[in-house]
Here is the input.
Amino acid sequence: MSDTTVVHLLRHGEVHNPAKVLYGRLPGYRLSDAGVEMAKQAADWFADKDVVHLVCSPMERTRQTAQPLADARGLEIHVDERIIEAGNAFEGQTVEGGNGVWRAPRHWWKLRNPMRPSWGEPYVEIAARMIAAVEAARDEARGHHAVLVSHQLPIWTVRLHVEGRRFAHDPRRRECSLASVTSLTYDGDRLDGVSYAEPAGATPPDAVPGA
Here is the structure.
């Protein structure tokens, strides 16, 4: 058996979100038609990868994103609570336009500490649960590839962690487009490299917000 194992962190595709709310962990948010196509493109990208283990978060949009890959490879989809979207105090509120959460003074207290961050689940906690899930998947797929379908902030937090960068960041500068793949390559238990790909292309600046 090869000592090389790759854990791919796949962000879900575009979500149907006409009200432009920060949906977070709210139920009822599924992929848009474009998101369904993104999931198919992601599955095609994995065609030449030796994927033997497939995991998604409990959210509907990640299961939908995982389904084309599961169908193509005959894989069971496992659900892992540890790779769920980050908790956020602004969940369910609009994030764009004149009535967006950033413009309301009553919300400014929640923005007092971007290092933590004060408006949601601490970055250190996101990193800890995500790394635990990544290592569990690595162990399940020894010598092969695993795919974890998760969400933008948890995936980006993992990358910041393994690359030794600070957690505080500008969300607009995350390299984690819709249906993108952040790949962690391991030599045994040692992280050997990080790579990034966009099977569905870059996310446009005016993409539907919320994840």
Remarks:
- The first strand starts at residue 4 and ends at 11.
